[in-house]
Structures are given as C-alpha cells and as structure tokens.
Design a protein that fits this description.
- Residues 4-240 form the ABC transporter domain.
- Belongs to the ABC transporter superfamily. Carbohydrate uptake transporter-1 (CUT1) (TC 3.A.1.1) family.
- By secondary structure, this protein is α+β, with helices and mostly antiparallel strands.
- Helix content is 25%, strand content 32%.
- The protein has 9 helices and 20 strands.
- The protein has helices at residues 47-55, 97-108, 113-127, 142-154, 172-189, 200-206, 224-229, 234-239, 268-274, and strands at residues 4-14, 20-31, 36-40, 62-67, 70-71, 82-85, 160-164, 192-197, 209-214, 217-222, 246-253, 256-258, 263-265, 280-284, 290-293, 303-312, 316-322, 330-336, 346-350, 357-360.
- A 6-stranded mixed sheet has the order 6-7-8-3-9-10, sandwiched between helices.
- The protein is elongated.
- It starts with a strand and ends in an 8-residue tail after the last strand.
- Bound molecules: adenosine-5'-triphosphate.
- Adenosine-5'-triphosphate binds next to strand 2 and helix 1.
- Adenosine-5'-triphosphate (ATP) binds at residues 13, 15, 21, 23, 41, 43-49, 198.
Length: 368
C-alpha cells in the first residue's frame, strides 16, 4: 500500500530577525494508492515546503507523514521510497543520459548491472527517448531533459513520485504535450504522485484530485470539478477558473439580494443559506453570465451594462462589462468567439439563480 498521508503537517521557519514564518500550517490530506494529487496555490503558499518535507529535504516542525502505516517523517531522504522530479531537472552535465538515469541505482542499491541496464532501457522506451541514451544533457532540448529527469525517477520504481513544477521551464506547446504524456505515464505506472504547480489549468487537467493551499493552509481537497462547481470558500472560487469568478458585495433585504448593480430574488434554498450570515458576497462565473443585445430582452433578472473591453481568447471572448454607476468597476463574461461584440456597445446581462455562489463576508466560507 503506497497511501501517502500528511497529518497536521506544519513547518515554521525562523527568519534572520528571529521571527517565525509559518510556511505550512496544519495540513492534513491523504493521497490514495495510485492517485495523482496536485498541490496548487499562489506563489509562497507553502507548496514546495510541503513537498520537500515529504521528500525529507526539510525537517517537520510538527505533525506526521506516513507511507502506508509507517511514519517516514524522521527517515533520511535516501531511506524513503520516494523519487522527486525537480523544475530544474538537476541532471549531471558530464554524464550521458544513460549514466544520469542509472547513477542513483548504482549508488544506492545492490542491483546487478543487467537489471539496471534493463530498467534504464524500459524507462527510455516508455518515455520515447531510447535514441538519446548516449547523449549528454547539453545536447538535449528542454523537453528531452525533462524526460530524462522523469526517467531517473522511473527507474527507481518508487512507491511515490514527487514533482515540483516539472513543466514550468518548457514553452506553452511542449508543456501541454508533456501534461498529456505525464498523465499517460502515471496511468501506466499507477504510482502515487504528488505534483506541485501554481498553474490552475495544470491542476484542473492533470489531477485526480487537487489540494488548494493559501498562506500555508489547506483550503480544499477534492476533484477538479468539485473545487470548480462547489468551492469551499471565496479563495478557491477565485483561484480555480479562468477568467476568475466575479464577486459582488451584496446585502439581504427581505427576499432579495441587493448589489450596487442589480438585485436578485432569493430562492428558498438561498434564503436558508444566507440566514445568520454577517454579510454576503455573491459569486458568478464568467461562463454563467448571458450577454444579449440591448434590444433583445432575455426575460428574468437582467440588467443593463456597457461593454468596456473585449479580449479574444480563441474560441471564446472575455467581455469586460462596466457598471452604469461606476463604469471603471467591471465584471467579466465569456461569450462565443464567433459572436460580434464591440467595446462601447450597450447590452443586457443576466444569469440563472442556480449559477450563483454565496460566501460569508467575514469567513469567506461558501454558504451554499
Ligand atoms: P513558489 O510557487 O513561489 O515556489 P511555494 O508555494 O512553493 O512558492 P514555499 O517555497 O513553500 O512556497 O514557501 C512558503 C513560505 O515559506 C514563503 O513565505 C517562503 O518565503 C518561506 N520559506 C521557504 N523556505 C524558507 C527558508 N528556508 N527560510 C525561511 N523562509 C522560507
């Protein structure tokens, strides 16, 4: 069983002035056997520190790390059955690809030369790089180097892979190709994997589940679709999804939700959800906003607005809409890329009640 469990994991650094930096704050999450978990969050939220503690490159301040039933928090890195792939690839420049891939096995195992040879050949086949085995890293492209770094982890056949932004040095096209390759590889090998990225697209497309971190704290762990459709709080709602969710300050008056731009009838379910909340933020995703020409009323609770900026995104346009009261304050809707829509145009916007997310102002927690 290669279930990896982080149990109230905490890391506190002390800076030069003697003050504490809580980099990882009481994080509890399980990565099931064979699961691909993506740890995602903004820069500085504690992703790398978490991964480095699991690898044994950083000590644990408190909490535990278990592989199966066994605590590994105090084990030396080389005693943990874990292989890490770094953003920088960390290849030895003077060694050939074959030597880079076999070096770790020669140093830290008593495997025979034949077995090492076979493992390197198998990994090279799996990664589609058998013709590169005789080359040195300086003679490889970025994508090829990244494959070698992966190969070095694969030959160890570890219980767990840890990957720290392994694709961030690649250009956009290669990154999306390697994303697919990595997913295929993980399906073939079925190795428990913890993958760190700050890129929510990478998280959404690659993870069986994602764990969203902010300021060292776990905000939500769930499937990509759970985090997208049922974000636990305002942070997750704003972090997952591109363009980001729109947020509107709202107050509850009777059976209506009032914002500066529009007011909205509360459904029974929404009324129960906001009962007792201090203040409410209404969230609506850009793709849930319908935009229609001013002369084509859509029915329901629509409101007038003016197109500020249109940003083509290929098959869609991001349309930034200004409020009548304050045109500099905009919100964003996505519409089909073929649709003609221009800055300055007067339009009406509306959205269905089941697309509304409500958050408590004070805690940021989702209310329904
Ligand atoms: P990024 O995406 O930018 O790599 P991250 O989410 O991986 O960021 P970490 O590198 O884990 O974040 O850093 C978390 C916090 O801990 C940051 O505030 C960082 O400045 C701090 N930190 C990390 N390493 C140390 C260290 N060795 N000493 C002191 N503070 C540190």
């Amino acid at each position: 069983m290669a279930q990896l469990s982080l149990d109230h994991l905490t890391k506190v650094f002390t800076d030069d002035d003697g003050s504490d930096i809580v980099a990882v704050d009481d994080v509890t999450v399980n990565i099931e056997d064979g699961e691909f978990l993506v740890l995602v969050g903004p820069s500085g939220c504690g992703k790398s520190t978490t991964l480095r503690m699991v690898a044994g490159l950083e000590t644990v301040t408190s909490g535990d790390i278990r592989l199966g039933e066994e605590s590994i928090a105090d084990q030396k890195p080389q005693d943990r059955d874990i292989a890490m792939v770094f953003q920088s690839y960390a290849l030895y420049p003077h060694m050939t690809v074959r030597e880079n891939m076999s070096f770790g096995l020669e140093e830290s195992t008593d495997m025979s030369d034949d077995e090492i040879h076979e493992r390197v050949e198998d990994a090279a086949d799996l990664l589609g790089i058998p013709e590169l085995l005789g080359r040195k890293p300086g003679e490889l492209s970025g994508g090829q180097r990244q494959r070698v770094a992966l190969g070095r982890a694969i030959v160890r056949d570890p219980e767990v892979f840890l990957m720290d932004e392994p694709l961030s040095n690649l250009d956009a096209k290669l990154r999306s190709q390697m994303r697919t390759e990595l997913q295929r590889l993980q399906e073939d090998l079925d190795t428990t994997t913890m993958y760190v990225t700050h890129d929510q697209t990478e998280a959404m497309t690659m993870g069986d589940r994602i764990a969203v971190l902010d300021a060292g704290e776990l905000q939500q762990a769930g499937t990509p679709l759970e985090c997208y459709h049922r974000p636990a709080n305002r942070f997750v709602a704003g972090f997952i999804g591109e363009p980001s969710m729109n947020f509107f300050d709202a107050t509850v008056e009777g059976d209506r939700l009032i914002t500066d731009a529009f007011d909205y009838p509360l459904t029974e379910e929404m009324r129960e959800a906001v009962d007792g909340a201090n203040g409410v933020t209404l969230g609506i995703r850009p793709e849930d906003i319908e935009v229609a020409a001013d002369d084509s009323p859509t029915g329901g609770d629509e409101f007038g607005t003016t197109v500020d900026v249109v940003e083509p995104m290929g098959n869609e346009n991001a349309v930034y809409l200004g409020f009548d009261e304050d045109p500099t304050d905009t919100f964003v809707a996505t519409v089909g890329g073929m649709r003609r829509i221009d800055a300055g145009e007067r339009v009406v916007a509306c959205f269905p009640s089941d697309a509304i997310h409500l958050f408590d102002d004070a805690s940021g927690d989702a209310l329904h």
